[in-house]
Amino acid sequence: MIIDSEALTQASLRLRNGEVVAIPTETVYGLAASIASHSGLQKIFALKQRPFFDPLIVHVASFKEAASCVKEWPPLADFLARTFWPGPLTIVLEKADHIDPLITSGLQTVAVRFPAHPLAQDLIKLTGSPLAAPSANRFGRTSPSTAEHVKNEFPNTGLLVIDGGPCEVGLESTVISFSENFDEVRVLRPGGISIPDIENALTKWSNPVRVVRAESSESPGHTKHHYMPPAPVAILDGNASRNDFARISKDLKRDDFKSPKELELGDDPVIAARLLYSELRRLSESGADLIYVLKSPQKTGGLWDAIWDRLTRASSWEPESGSRL
Ligand code: TXA
Ligand code: MG
């Protein structure tokens, strides 16, 4: 993907002027505004129809910039940042005083990440300030992993979309925080960096640190009924049959499905993650009135857990609970 420097300069000017620009990152596309522009930040929420209780991630292009957004930059954060940055790891720490409460939904903490995509880095540097950015989708909908997805999500808005090609990871970043005495890493949202990746890195750290999955209530905004494509998604055990479809349509109070289509994940979690959101969109657009995914006991652990997390949040129906709409 070739983006001329003219387009980047244009984008950075808009950002400095308090406008919103859609930017590529290695995880998903983001809807960015300068953290220095209160009105730019407000525009993100308006465009996305995002509730104010859902805090934004601050994107930086250096370790120094990350440290400037937080009250204190602890050694453990520095160690993990130096292991995984630039990359899909977001670190939640106590916020610096200058961080706009709109970014943090009034919380005393801020989420910071150094994205790997070179265009995101260039744009942060050109703008001269970190960029706050949620995923570039309307609230509750599937995240965009191509520039095309973003354009379709916000038609007729004049939104400038920087095309950086399809996202390499395809799933949002892993969000972590720390226990008070730094003996625990809490994974608030599973993502591009898996728990075993973090555990592995920590074997080189001076003190023992546990890595635990935190309750989703600690991660504001990471709610159920997120990431939903227009067609309902169902997670099925084993082989799907006509009987399952009949039960699902009854549970969801819908007519019989005429065109249920399977989302096939394949065997490689890296590829499955990369294609997940594109496939959900493609199946919806191809006229599926139900998208179903078959659960497989082999597909667990590591990146698979992040994939199932998103699928569960996208789903309207699961065998244990029946309808969740
Ligand atoms: O990969 C990503 O993280 C993408 C790209 C664009 O960087 N961004 C993204 O942003 O996924 P968004 O807004 O869709 O998700 C941000 C989530 C929030 O919903 C919340 O769960 C968590 O990050 N978060 C942000 N600030 C937090 C805080 N102070 N404490 C706890 N969780 C926070
Ligand atoms: Mg999102």
Question: How would you describe what is shown here?
Answer:
The protein is α/β, with parallel strands linked by helices and 325 residues long. Helix content is 33%, strand content 18%. It is built from 11 helices and 15 strands. It has helices at 5-16, 38-48, 63-68, 75-84, 101-104, 118-127, 147-153, 195-202, 242-251, 269-285, 303-314, and strands at residues 21-23, 30-34, 57-59, 89-94, 109-113, 131-133, 160-161, 174-178, 184-189, 210-213, 233-237, 260-262, 290-295, 317-318, 322-323. The longest helix has 17 residues, at 269-285. The chain starts with a helix and ends with a strand. The mean pLDDT is 93. The protein binds threonylcarbamoyladenylate and magnesium ion.
